[in-house]
Specification:
It is built from one helix and no strands. It is an all-alpha fold and 21 residues long.
Length: 21
């Protein structure tokens, strides 16, 4: 479960990075 949560958090981080750029 923690692995999936970590993966989702990374995906969100990536999306935020995209918006930031």
């Amino acid at each position: 479960m923690i692995f999936l949560q970590n993966h989702q958090k990374r995906k969100e981080d990536h999306m935020t990075s995209s918006y930031s750029s």
